[in-house]
Automatic annotation (TrEMBL):
<feature type="binding site">
    <location>
        <begin position="151"/>
        <end position="153"/>
    </location>
    <ligand>
        <name>NAD(+)</name>
    </ligand>
</feature>
<comment type="similarity">
    <text>Belongs to the aldehyde dehydrogenase family.</text>
</comment>
<feature type="binding site">
    <location>
        <position position="382"/>
    </location>
    <ligand>
        <name>NAD(+)</name>
    </ligand>
</feature>
<dbReference type="InterPro" id="IPR016163">
    <property type="entry name" value="Ald_DH_C"/>
</dbReference>
<protein>
    <recommendedName>
        <fullName>Betaine aldehyde dehydrogenase</fullName>
        <ecNumber>1.2.1.8</ecNumber>
    </recommendedName>
</protein>
<dbReference type="InterPro" id="IPR011264">
    <property type="entry name" value="BADH"/>
</dbReference>
<feature type="binding site">
    <location>
        <position position="253"/>
    </location>
    <ligand>
        <name>NAD(+)</name>
    </ligand>
</feature>
<feature type="active site" description="Charge relay system">
    <location>
        <position position="459"/>
    </location>
</feature>
<feature type="binding site" description="covalent">
    <location>
        <position position="285"/>
    </location>
    <ligand>
        <name>NAD(+)</name>
    </ligand>
</feature>
<dbReference type="InterPro" id="IPR016161">
    <property type="entry name" value="Ald_DH/histidinol_DH"/>
</dbReference>
<feature type="modified residue" description="Cysteine sulfenic acid (-SOH)">
    <location>
        <position position="285"/>
    </location>
</feature>
<keyword id="KW-0521">NADP</keyword>
<feature type="binding site">
    <location>
        <position position="452"/>
    </location>
    <ligand>
        <name>K(+) 2</name>
    </ligand>
</feature>
<dbReference type="InterPro" id="IPR029510">
    <property type="entry name" value="Ald_DH_CS_GLU"/>
</dbReference>
<dbReference type="GO" id="GO:0046872">
    <property type="term" value="F:metal ion binding"/>
</dbReference>
<dbReference type="GO" id="GO:0019285">
    <property type="term" value="P:glycine betaine biosynthetic process from choline"/>
</dbReference>
<feature type="active site" description="Nucleophile">
    <location>
        <position position="285"/>
    </location>
</feature>
Length: 485
């Protein structure tokens, strides 16, 4: 490896790297070659206890600081992250296989955006005064305590910051468990926060699989759980958190609709469909993988889409010219290949792609199916790979009913030049995050999250503050108390 990807130790706890080799070894595999680039160990019960104990110990003093003081540290961390964007992007590429062309402009930069945004907001987190004649009530916005963040493997740096930044801004401690598939990047986030002046114990990183997540979620010292992951994992974590009446945020999967009307700008609609299906090799939870295209423009859309997919540069993710990289793991690649087989056996028309590339690593061709019907597995189940399902429609009411006929409700998009229709369709979508004439933009200023089985709560924006803090009401009586006896 031209770059040292082996971390000093597996975990970052109380301001330093910590190791316990009694934990299960986790090999980190570079998706572009299949070679092992690092090994970390899953947290033992002793490591989990150490992480929670140090977070619990540090949290009260952190919450007692002013928001301005807390915010200054978060903003300093964002500056360090931007200064080190190249190295962080290289590490993210090794961790995930995503092209450097992508990681260098999306991953650490969006993490830095979150630290900067919530760092700027920390000083503004005030309560309110409510006058009631002579009497009055005031509210205090208070930290929850110890928060646990459980990350997904597609955006390890970003998710570590999306969860950590609002939690820390509100005065909480955060213990972050990355996905076992991508364990490297969150350690750098912890390092940078500590270097920026965050007191020890307030952002700890522990590695591990489901049992480590379960140990964190069920510990009585933990007050809040935020998960980014699949719906089945979300159900388990939500149930475990409910047992302890813990606060939760769930950012789960999707099978989002993207509707392209016959008056749409074809070039922009194709661009949106590419972003919503093939960015990060299709490994994005909000992807618009059910593309409903009006029959009048379907063949034109498919023709232009196929032409533009031919411009994808598939190759070494570290080459700045590469625009499409491998799947994150061999397992995920095989899951996606299984869906490609299902699509063909169910009678969908394979327009382009559909095969593994004959090269080392876990590469799949960008794949498009047309003539897909609503009952096919590729139109109902989340694939989490570079597979687009194109469905036909002619009538707005019909396509809205079909678009909403899913257990998921994470995102949805519409392409049309008719402004009235655009806003009407957005209002009718049963989804938490919607797009008009674009797809998958996720600025930190905008709330992000789902409805139905796609989750509960919101990340980013002012809305995230509600999920990392609680309100205390204080009634102040200025006149005499009236009692019945």
């Amino acid at each position: 490896m031209p770059y040292d990807t082996q971390p000093p130790a597996s975990h970052f706890i109380d301001g330093s790297y910590v190791e316990d080799t009694a934990g299960t070894p986790i090999d980190v595999i570079y998706p572009a070659t299949g070679e092992k680039i690092a090994t970390v160990h899953a947290a033992t019960p002793a490591i989990v206890d150490q992480a929670i104990a140090s977070a619990k110990k540090a949290q009260a003093a952190w919450a007692a600081m002013t928001g301005t003081e807390r915010g200054r540290i978060l903003r300093r961390a964002s500056e360090i992250m931007r200064e080190r964007n190249h190295d962080l992007s290289v590490l993210e590429t090794y961790d995930t296989g995503k092209p450097y062309q992508e990681t260098s402009v999306v991953d650490a930069t969006s993490g830095a955006d979150a630290l900067e945004y919530f760092g700027g907001m920390a000083a503004t987190l005030t309560g309110e005064h409510i006058q009631l004649g002579e009497n009055w009530v005031y509210t205090r916005r208070e930290a929850l305590g110890v928060c646990v963040g459980i990350g997904a493997w597609n955006y390890p740096t970003q998710i570590a910051c999306w969860k950590g930044a609002p939690a820390l801004a509100c005065g909480n401690a955060m213990i972050f468990k990355p996905s076992e598939t991508t364990p490297l990047c969150a350690l750098k986030v912890a390092e940078i926060l500590y270097e920026a002046g965050l007191p020890a114990g307030l952002y700890n990183v522990v590695q591990g699989m489901g049992e480590v997540g379960s140990a964190l979620v069920t510990d009585p010292r933990v007050d809040k759980v935020s998960l980014t992951g699949s719906v089945p994992t979300g159900r388990k974590v939500y149930a475990a958190a409910a047992e302890g009446i813990k606060h939760v945020t769930m950012e789960l999967g999707g099978k989002s609709p993207l509707i392209v009307f016959d008056d749409a700008d074809i070039e922009n609609a194709v661009g949106g469909a590419i972003l919503g299906n093939f960015y990060s090799s299709g490994q994005v939870c909000s992807n618009g993988t059910r593309v409903f295209v009006h029959k009048a423009i379907k063949e034109k859309f498919l023709s232009r889409l196929t032409e533009r997919l031919g411009n994808a540069v598939i190759g070494d993710p570290m080459d700045p010219d590469t625009s499409f990289g491998p799947m994150v793991s061999e397992r995920q690649m095989n899951i996606v290949l299984g869906y490609v087989e299902k699509g063909q056996s169910e009678g969908a028309r394979l327009v382009t792609g559909g095969a593994r590339l004959e090269r080392e690593g876990f590469y799949l061709q960008p794949t498009v199916f047309a003539d897909v019907t609503d009952d096919m597995a590729i139109a109902r189940e989340e694939i989490f790979g570079p597979v687009m399902a194109v469905l036909d429609f002619e009538d707005e009411d019909d396509v809205m009913a079909r678009a909403n006929d899913t257990e998921f409700g994470l995102a949805a998009g519409v392409f049309t030049r008719d402004l009235t229709r655009a806003h009407r369709v957005a209002a009718r979508f049963e989804a938490g995050t919607c797009y008009i004439n674009t797809y998958n933009d996720a600025p930190v200023e905008a709330p992000f999250g789902g409805s139905k089985n796609s989750g509960v709560g919101r990340e980013n924006s002012k809305a995230a503050i509600e999920h990392y803090s609680q309100l205390k009401s204080v009634f102040v009586r200025m006149d005499d108390v009236e009692a019945p006896f």
